[in-house]
Design goal:
Order of helices and strands: EEEHEEEEHEEH
Number of strands: 9
Shape: globular
Structural class: alpha+beta
Number of helices: 3
Radius of gyration: 16 Å
């Protein structure tokens, strides 16, 4: 089952949310239309909670002590896709509060992929990313803190979420 759309980036900065995503271009193999959204509307609390869960993943990926988690705030996720192989991966962006400096330390994790033997995503991270992707599409579809803005169909979002959670190779599917 191919996916119809996929998140390429989410960034939360103060009260602004930036989301980039792609939708498959029906009838054209390995071609995606690209869209971005920059908005001040508050997201559902679940989006912020899911981003917060990535703080522990930043510690794990960067091999930092667990106690650093309380000082880390994940601010972004970049998804990287290889349409030929179906392999995808992520880079997490975060800030860490420092003890003696008022400016935070900016962190980018090394790339981690959905498949492979050496440096793959943990099951926990895959579940968090699946939930984050779902929350991003709910936000795009208008389901935000103030309630739904549009009456959007959620079937494709659920299918895409399941594919990410299972770390399946992502292939293009027809738009429905």
């Amino acid at each position: 089952m191919g996916i119809n759309r996929r998140i390429t980036k989410i960034k939360i900065k103060k009260e602004k949310i930036f989301i980039s995503y792609q939708e498959s271009n029906s009838g054209r193999e390995n071609e995606w239309d690209e869209y971005s959204l920059r908005c001040c509307d508050l997201a559902r609390p679940e989006l912020y909670e899911t981003m917060k869960k990535l703080d522990a993943q930043v510690c794990d990926i960067c091999e930092l002590p667990e106690e650093y988690e309380e000082r880390i705030t994940t601010t972004g996720v970049t998804f990287i896709y290889n349409d030929e192989t179906g392999v995808w991966g992520i880079v997490l962006t975060a800030q860490m509060d420092l003890d003696t400096n008022p400016a935070p330390l900016n962190l980018n994790t090394p790339y981690k992929s959905n498949t492979g033997e050496d440096y793959t995503l943990s099951d926990t991270c895959a579940r968090i990313l699946a939930k984050l992707s779902e929350e991003c599409f709910l936000y795009i579809n208008g389901d935000r803190a103030q309630g739904k803005l549009f009456d959007a169909e959620a079937v494709n979002t659920k299918q895409d979420t399941k594919a990410i959670e299972n770390r399946e190779p992502l292939q293009i599917g027809p738009l429905q």
